[in-house]
Amino acid sequence: FIDITRFKYPQRPIIFLALCYFFISCGYLLRLVLGHKNVACRLENPDDQQSYVQLVHVSGPSNCTFVFVLIYFFGMASSIWWVILTLTWFLAAGFKWSSEAIAHYSLQYHLVAWLVPCIQTITILMLKGIDGDSISGICYVGHTNSSMLRRFVIIPLITCLTIGTIFLLGGLISLMRIRNVMKIQDRTKTSKLEKLMVRIGLYSILYTVPATFVIGIYFYELRYRATWEENPFCDDCPNLLR
């Protein structure tokens, strides 16, 4: 339903970013449709409808696994597409690469953007690292294992955000240099470039600020998760600590 050919590099990764967030939204909507207990919990005793316990160390096919794959796989892919977007901006602004030259490596972009999250997801499944969250009803990695949260969520997100920000700043600095040169030659020719810089800067703020908050929230969860589990506020999985 989207004519990708209309979006040339370096803007094209934005389409794949949007696609990733669409599937992430599907993961959260699926949890909403299926219900809290049918995703993050299991019935320990069929004769007791109150004997729900939190799912831990999930690896096989289940609602929990499906929700996890949608949210985690496409979440990591979106972070990598952000890096690719900033990289292509940097190549275009800093090294004067044409759209065709950047597009020449499109296969490599896709290979990295989809293969790395796939390896991460498969590794987590093999390690049985998926857990249900009795508070949110979402299945994800690291709910009961701080080491898994650090290795598979926090470190990859920080890495992608840092690399992307470096490329972004490099591209903006290059554009500012070009703008200064153009101003010396002819002030009337800088309006389009200035608009481009504003658009890139605005988009960067809209991505980096929420991404930074998300990482901060994961650190907060890492610090206080044990306290939350000792004093559960959610009644959907009453036997959380069993």
From TrEMBL:
Keywords, comma-separated and alphabetical: Developmental protein, Membrane, Receptor, Transmembrane, Transmembrane helix
GO molecular function: Wnt receptor activity; Wnt-protein binding
Domain (G-protein coupled receptors family 2 profile) ranges: 1-242
SMART domains linked to this entry: Frizzled
Localization of this protein: Membrane
InterPro entries: Frizzled/SFRP (IPR015526), Frizzled/Smoothened_7TM (IPR000539), GPCR_2-like_7TM (IPR017981)
Gene3D superfamilies the record matches: Rhodopsin 7-helix transmembrane proteins (1.20.1070.10)
Keyword Cytoplasm carried by entry: no
GO biological process, one term: canonical Wnt signaling pathway
Pfam families according to UniProt: Frizzled (PF01534)
rRNA-binding as UniProt keyword: no
Residues passing through the membrane, by range: 14-34, 80-97, 109-127, 152-175, 196-220
One annotated Gene Ontology cellular component of this protein: plasma membrane
Topology with respect to the bilayer: Multi-pass membrane protein
Family: Belongs to the G-protein coupled receptor Fz/Smo family.
Protein name: G-protein coupled receptors family 2 profile 2 domain-containing protein
Organism: Rotaria magnacalcarata
